[in-house]
Amino acid sequence: MSRIGIFLYGVLCYAVFLGVFVYAIGFIGGFATPTLLDGAPTRPLGQALAINLGLLAAFALQHSIMARPAFKHWWTRIVPEAAERSTYVLASSLALIALFIFWEPIGGVLWSVPEGSGRTAIIGLYAFGWLLLLYTTFLIDHFDLFGLAQVWRHFTGRSYRPPQFRTPSLYRVVRHPLYIGWLIIFWAAPTMTVAHLVFAVMTTAYILIAIRFEERDLVDAFGNDYVAYRRSTPMLMPRLWSARRTTTPSRGAQR
Ligand SMILES: C[S@@+](CC[C@H](N)C(=O)[O-])C[C@H]1O[C@@H](n2cnc3c(N)ncnc32)[C@H](O)[C@@H]1O
Fold this sequence. Notes:
- Catalyzes the methylation of methanethiol (MeSH) to yield dimethylsulphide (DMS).
- The chain has 10 helices and 2 strands, in the order ααααβααααβαα.
- It is globular, with a radius of gyration of 20 Å.
- It has helices spanning about 5-30, 45-65, 70-75, 85-100, 115-140, 140-145, 150-155, 175-185, 195-220, 225-230, and strands at about 110, 190-195.
- It has one domain.
- About 60% of the residues lie in helices and about 5% in strands.
- The structure holds S-adenosylmethionine.
């Protein structure tokens, strides 16, 4: 593939991701999209559960396997290295599009906060989760995370420089602020149905497992810097006192 071809492919993958991102806000939040996480059931419970768990498993497998260094090593013999991250982003987006299309609402309201300040606060928290998520992508490197930096550097004839170990802003408070954004999004539901609960429980479990794998890769990539960071900074729950928050320097990777 030519340089311009790879660049345009990267931009296309990013555009697909943006569409999925915006759709997900409505899909999970229960407004404005043709398909929704919550709703009245259209199939027997067992069938609906099997379909939903299958969709979540497909996303989890795609997202985890394609992120592993060994897979990338093999995969970049087939796809150009500069397009590897964009392909990952595209595959993740396609897995989510399948989930948006084939997800089966199950009904069964577990809680529903009545109209008023409580409901408004939960909707506000949901919006905050999305903002936190978006903000956090920029703290490490938004354009690297979604493949644009790679295709741009390739297009302009420069070699790829992976992001360095960094602990800016919220990364000094917890090691995984982006995943906190997801957890807020999944659980901040003014109305919680059975399908939403299945989604929230399974995605929470997935995040907790994914952290183990991600941190193993981060220790391989960043060595003692990440080991020390892991010792000094909580994984997901911020410490309520500030004296010992972190001692990790915000500087480049050392192996
Ligand atoms: C989807 S992001 C999630 C980051 C983090 N787990 C979080 O929840 O904020 C995953 C990417 O962030 C990178 N990453 C995570 N922590 C990092 C850090 N402190 N410095 C540099 N890169 C980091 C990983 O290498 C991975 O490519």
